[in-house]
Amino acid sequence: MKRSLSTATQIGAEPSGRSRWIILGIVGAIFAIPILSSLHFTFSAGLGGGYTLDHWTGLFAPDASRTYRNLFTGIGNSLVLAVVTVIIMLVILLPTMILVQLQFPRLRRTLEFICIIPITVPAIVLVVGLAPVYSVVVKVFGGSVWTLAFAYGITVLPYAYRAIQSNLDSVDVITLSEAARSLGAGWLSTVWNALLPNLRRGILAASFIAVAVVLGEFTIASLLNRKNLQTALLEVSQSDPYVAVIFSLLALSLAFCLLLLIGRLGSTDRKRSSL
Amino acid sequence: MTITTQNPAPLAPTTGATVTLAGVIKDYSGQRALNGIDLSIAPGEFIALLGPSGCGKTTALRALSGLERIDGGSIQIDGVDVAETPVNRRDIGMVFQSYSLFPHMTSVQNVEFGLRMRKVPAEQRRSRALEALEMVGLSDKGERFAHQLSGGQQQRVALARALVTRPRVLLLDEPLSALDAKVRVQLRDEIRRIQTDLGITTLFVTHDQEEALAVADRVAVMREGRIEQIGTPEELYLRPSTAFVANFVGLSNRIDARIVDGMVEFHNERMPLLGAEQANGPVTAFIRPEDVVFAGSGIPATVVASSFLGSLRRTQVRLADDTVLSVQHEVASHPQAGESIFVRFTPKPVSAGPRG
Q1: Which of A222-231, B54-63, B345-354 holds the top average pLDDT?
Q2: How far is B278 from chain A (nearest CA, A)?
Q3: A175 → closest Cβ in B96, B113, B161
Q4: Among the partner residues A182, A184, A197, nearest to B65 by beta-carbon distance
Q5: A57 Cβ contact list (under 8 Å, min separation 6)
Q6: Dihedral pair phi/psi, residue A124, rounded to 5°
Q7: What are the distances in angstroms from CA B335 to CA B117, B171, B296, B300?
Q8: In a mutagenesis test of the A interface, which of B77, B104, B157 is the best target, namely the one with the most A β-carbons within 10 Å?
Q9: What's the distance, CA B147 to chain centroid?
Q10: Nearest-angstrom CA–CA distance, B132 and B111
Q11: What's the mean per-residue pLDDT of chain A?
Q12: DSSP-derived 3-state class of residue B305
C-alpha cells in the first residue's frame, strides 16, 4: 500500500490534500446517505411527520417474540449457517491450502482458479445447479437448516481463499515446518504448534468474511425456499417496514464491526513486524 | 557482541555419532541431483560441503536430515540405516539458511520447542533452554521475539534450538549466508568453538570457500552431484586433485599453458605438474598468487594495479601476451602502475586441466 502510494507520487498521480478530502467526502456520502436515511426512517412517526422511538421499543415489547417469530427464526438460522460455513471452511479449505503450499506447490494455480470460480458464477446459476444436488443432500442429511451451509461454503471460497493465501505468502511455512519437524515434531504437531499460530490472522479474517457473506446472503436461500436473515427481512418488510430496516441496520453494523476487526488484525500484525 | 570464549560449555559434551553416506542417489524430475555420494564422517568431526550453487550440496544435507527421500544408496547414523526414518525421528539438529525461528514464540520458547516435542518436564525444559541460550551468548534475550533480534542473533537462537536436544548430528545449511561480513566471521568462529566443545558430528553446507577452509576439519568439494575431492583444508589448497578444485578453492591465476614432457610450460618457465600425468598439449594451469614472485629477470611484465590488503599486497601485472597475473607479495614493496618488472614462478607443482 505504502509502496504503491510512493510510486504514485513519483509520477505525480497522487491527488493533492484537498482533492483527497473531496473524493473521500463523496465516497463517504454515497455510503452514509442511505444508511442515515434508513436510521432516520426508523425514528419517523409516519406520514404525518415527527419522531418516535416506538419502532425500536416495539422490539422489546412483551409480545415481540411472537410478532417477529419469523424474523428471529431467520436470525437464528443465519447464525447457525455462519458457524457451520466457517467450520466447513476451516475443515476443508484450510488444510487443503496448507497441504498445497507445503507439498504440492505446483497445484497452487489450480487451487486458486477453483476457489475463484464461485465469484464468476451468478447466484441464480449456482442455484439451478444446486437444486438437484440439494434433493440428494436432503435425502442424506435431512432438510435441516444447516445443510444450506454446503452451498455457502462454496460462495465464501474466493474471499476465504484470498484471506488465507495472503497470510500463507507472508509466512515462510516451508522453513517453519521443516524446522519443527527437524526438532522432533510430527505432522499434526507441526501444523498445530508451528503453523496455525502464525496463520491466525488469515484464519480469523477468512472466518469474519465468511460470517459477513453468510449474514448478507439472500438469493440462494430464497430460491431454495430456505429461511435466513435476509429472506425473513424481506418477509417482515411487507408487513412492518420499520422493523425490516432496523434489522438491516443491525446486520450492517455487525458486518462493519467484523470488517473493522479484520482491519485491526492486519494493522497490529504490521506494527509487530515493523518493530 | 559479548566474548563468550571463556565460558565453559554449559551442555555436557556429547559423544558424536558416525555418519556414513554410501552411493546416495537423488533424482529431481529426471535430473540427477546426487550422483553417488560417498562420505564417512567420524564422531565429532566437522565436515564442510563446498561447491557452486546447484552442485547438490544442500540436497546431500537434506537427504541426511530426512527432509528429502533418497532414490538409491544408504545413509547410516551410528551404523543404523536411517533412509526410512522420518526426519522427526532421526535425532538431528538443523540450522537453516533463511531465518526459521517461530515468529509467535520468544527465543526461549523457540529453544524449548524440541524439548517440548520430547515431552521433557516444563521446569527442566526452561533451565536447559536458558543454558543453551547462554552458550550462544544470548541469555539476556530470552524474552525477545524473532523480529526484535538481529539476523545474527536469530541464527544464534536457531543454533541453540538445534543443539538443546543434544542431537547426534548437527546440520548447518548455509546458516551464515544472510548475514553481513563481520557477523558472519564472528558467528562462524563461534559455531566452530561450540562444535568443538560439544564434540558433535557436524555437516556444514556453504558456497563460500573461505568459510569452509576456516572452520572444517575436512572439506568435501562437490560438483554436479558428486564429491570431487575430500580432504583437510591444507590438502585441498596445496594438492587439489582436479582443475575444478584448484580453481574453486582459494585464489588462482588461470593461465594458458602447455604440457611438455610431463611439465607445465609457460613463457619458458617450467613447473612440475600436480596429480596424474597428462598428454602433451595446451592446458589451463592454476597458479596461486603467492607462487608468482618479482625477480631481477624472467617474464617481462607491466604493473596494472596494486592493492593493499593489510598484511600483504596483491598486484596485477600484464604480460606481453595480455595475460593478467595476480602477484601476492610483502607490503614493503610497492610497485607503481605502469612500471616494468619481471616475474617468475616458484617451482612448486601446479595443477592443470583442459583448456576452457
Answers
A1: B54-63
A2: 47
A3: B96
A4: A182
A5: none
A6: -65, -40
A7: 63, 46, 14, 14
A8: B104
A9: 28
A10: 8
A11: 85
A12: strand
pLDDT tens, position by position, A26-39: 999 998 999 999 89
Q: What is the pLDDT of residues A118-168, one digit of tens each?
A: 989 888 888 888 888 888 888 888 878 888 899 999 999 999 999 999 999
> Sheet containing B313-319: which strands, arranged edge to edge?
B292-295, B340-345, B299-308, B313-319, B324-329
* pLDDT above 70 (res A269): no
Contacts of B159 in chain A (CB under 8 A): none
Residue B232 gets which letter from DSSP?
Answer: -
Which three cell numbers, joined as nine digits, stand for B275? 596429480
Which residues neighbour B44 within 8 Å (Cβ) at sequence distance 6 or greater?
A: B15, B16, B199, B200, B201
Q: Does B94 touch chain A (CB under 8 A)?
A: yes
- Checking if the pLDDT of A203 tops 90, the result is yes
- Please write the tens of the pLDDT for every residue from B94-125: 999 999 999 999 999 999 999 999 999 999 99
Number of neighbours of residue B277 by Cβ within 10 angstroms: 7
DSSP state of B42: -
Domains and CATH numbers, chain B: 19-238 (3.40.50.300), 251-354 (2.40.50.140)
Instruction: Collect all residues of chain B within an 8 Å Cβ-Cβ radius of residue A179.
Output: 94, 96, 100-102, 158, 161
Averaged confidence pLDDT in chain B: 91
CB B352 within 8 A of CB B243: yes
The predicted complex's ipTM stands at 0.84
Burial class, B278, CB count within 10 angstroms (exposed 0-12 / middle 13-18 / buried 19+): middle
Please report the DSSP string for B82-105 in residue order: -TTS-GGGS-EEEE-SS--S-TTS
At B43, phi and psi to the nearest 5? -55, 130
**Close Cβ partners of B78 (under 8 Å, ≥ 6 residues apart):** B17, B18, B168
Q: Which residue has the higher pLDDT, A7 or B45?
A: B45
A175–chain B Cβ distance below 8 A for any pair: yes
How far is the C-alpha of B74 from the C-alpha of A72, rounded, in Å? 67
Residue A175: which H helix or E strand, with range? Answer: helix A173-182
Smallest CA-to-CA distance from B46 within B159, B204, B175 is with B204
Whether the pLDDT of residue A241 is over 90: the answer is: no
Cα distance between residue A175 and residue A160, in whole Å: 24
Residue pairs spanning A and B at CB distance below 8 A: 72
Give pLDDT, residue A9: 46
Chain B, nearest residue to A184 by Cα: B88
In eight-state DSSP terms, residue B139 is G
Q: How far is B299 from chain A (nearest CA, A)?
A: 55
Residue A239 in 3-state DSSP? helix
CA-nearest of B220, B262, B280 to B350 is: B262
List of chain B residues whose C-beta atoms are within 8 Å of the C-beta of residue A197: 102, 104
**Domains, chain A:** 2-52 (no CATH), 64-274 (1.10.3720.10)
Q: Is the Cβ–Cβ distance between B323 and B256 less than 8 Å?
A: yes
Distance from CA of A190 to the nearest CA of B (A): 10
What pLDDT shows up at residue B9?
44
